[in-house]
Design brief:
mainly alpha, MetI-like fold, about 80% helix
């Protein structure tokens, strides 16, 4: 059956002219322009990149610190961080909104309904995730690495660098997880950003708006783009891990 249908498919493809391809491209561009998809993608990538960069620095530092340091209240702090993992994003968005509103403590900064304000909300959501993952990895990995480094006569600075090198795969996956959370967030960025077209409208808030308007084609297009981003992230993570395994084998 397949070999009989294959010639028909080739004949159908051969009938598609260059003009048809141009029309398809023009329609795709029109969809992106009309729905503001291009702006939504740009805002999403800017917000996710900025928030994940800051959250990664904070989360990795705090995760490694909590594994090594000993101080009163350490267990309580770890439990608080674990609690923040399950905090509803809408609640975080509401708290950030109250902080940034005109009469709020940070109202003078004029960050409400801006990408910077959305980044602040995302940092509060993502940092506990990266902190918890890095801390869990460090608890299982760092003691053995630290003992080996001490036996080899390494300094404290060399020991810390070695721990980070041994955990680089796990740290990378923690960052990827944070980025995935950032691009898929809806509630907090809707409250803090206001879903303003061309300024603070992200891919997820655009999908929500398009669904309420009954515009499903553009919503599906954005959904497919989100899936493509997720696929690229997972593909990059897989390639990174495969390369590390090959290096270890050599």
């Amino acid at each position: 059956m397949l070999h009989e249908a294959f010639p028909d498919c080739l004949a159908l493809i051969s009938k598609v002219t260059a003009g048809d391809f141009v029309d398809i491209i023009n329609e795709a561009i029109q969809v992106f322009t009309d729905a503001g998809i291009g702006d939504a993608v740009k805002v999403t990538l800017i917000m996710a990149t900025c928030s994940v960069t800051i959250s990664s620095f904070l989360g990795i530092s705090l995760g490694l610190f909590l594994e090594q340091a000993h101080f009163p209240g350490k267990r309580l702090l770890i439990r608080v961080n674990h609690t923040l993992l399950g905090s509803p994003p809408v609640v975080v968005g509401l708290l950030v909104y109250l902080l940034l509103m005109r009469n709020g403590p940070l109202g003078e900064l004029s960050l409400l309904f801006t990408i910077k304000g959305m980044v602040l909300a995302q940092i509060i959501i993502i940092t506990p995730i990266i902190t918890s993952m890095v801390h869990s990895y460090a608890v299982n990995t760092a003691p053995a690495v630290r003992a080996f480094a001490v036996a080899m006569g390494a300094t404290k600075r060399q020991t810390k660098i070695l721990i980070v090198k041994e955990m680089k795969n796990e740290i990378y996956f923690a960052i990827v997880t944070g980025f995935g959370r950032a691009i898929s967030e809806v509630g907090s960025v809707m409250l803090v950003g206001g879903n303003i077209e061309g300024r603070t409208r992200t891919m997820t808030t655009a999908i929500s708006m398009l669904k309420s308007q009954g515009i499903y084609t553009e919503g599906v297009t954005l959904g497919v783009l989100l899936l493509v981003f997720a696929f690229i992230l997972q593909g990059a993570a897989g390639c990174f891990q495969k390369r590390e395994l090959q290096n270890e084998n050599y």
